[in-house]
Amino acid sequence: MILSTTETIPGRTIKRFFGVVTGSTVRSKHIGRDLMAGIKNIFGGELKGYTELLQESREDALARMVQEAESLGANAVVNLRFATSSITQGAAELFAYGTAVQVD
Amino acid sequence: MDALIQIGFALALLAVTYFTGRRVERRHYASIRARERELAMLPAVTFRQIPSGWVVDGLGVVSGSVVVSVDYFKRFLAGLRTLVGGRVTSYETLLDRARREAILRCKEDARQRGYQAVVNLRLETTRVSRASNNSRATAGVEVLAFGTGLELRRDPR
Question: Per the CB < 8 Å rule, is B140 touching A82?
């Protein structure tokens, strides 16, 4: 599966469009991580636990999107985008979307 | 009496976090500057199309993200600032650090995967809230930088 944030893939032509594919996940932190972040929140600096959690969740969302694209018979996703929304206190949605295509 | 203890604790925390926050920020900026120099040869651009002179052998998505937070003292300063309005410098530097760090991590990801350039770089900023309800303050801000890493036949410079 070729993934790209550009609209085309250099050196390849798009044969077929399958439309939008999406992948999302809503995650919350467990209490231990939240506690550590609370301490970091007083002294400042990177909240590593949160960085890792969001990164892992984003990879999950991306994997779901890729799965959807594969099930459609696509071999690439172009114009890929990510979005994050704070749904409520302590939970966030990670979202990946793009256009599934078939390239030669 | 209780109120006095609380005020005393808050003042002590302000004094401590004034120094720790400054230290954290200064160190972070030093690290950012050093890595920016190191990664200067790997350009990251916001072009949507690949420049015509570049011969691309391979590509893939690269990304970098960071969650950073301000300290207690800066949050207090920002709170005061909202009374009179104007530039909230403590949050300006926080966002500046977060964006530069995210771009650096995106470039590091690209280098690790063997790419020589990043095109169509995008930045996303999200406020991260904490699960506990006692603080209305944010836990920090997440910045995500992502783009398409390119394997080039020729050096892009």
Answer: no
Full-model pTM: 0.89
Assigned CATH for A2-103: 3.30.110.70
B44-91 per-position pLDDT tens digit? 999 888 887 788 888 999 999 999 988 889 988 888 888 998 898 889
Output the 3-class SS for A50-97: HHHHHHHHHHHHHHHHHHHHHHHCCCEEEEEEEEEEEEECCEEEEEEE
Which of A1, A84, A87 should be substituted to probe chain B, the one whose Cβ sees the most B Cβ atoms within 10 Å?
A84
- Give the ipTM: 0.87
What is the assigned CATH class of domain B2-152?
alpha beta
Instruction: Tell which of B24, B119, B148, B153 to mutate to test the A interface (max A CBs under 10 Å).
Output: B148
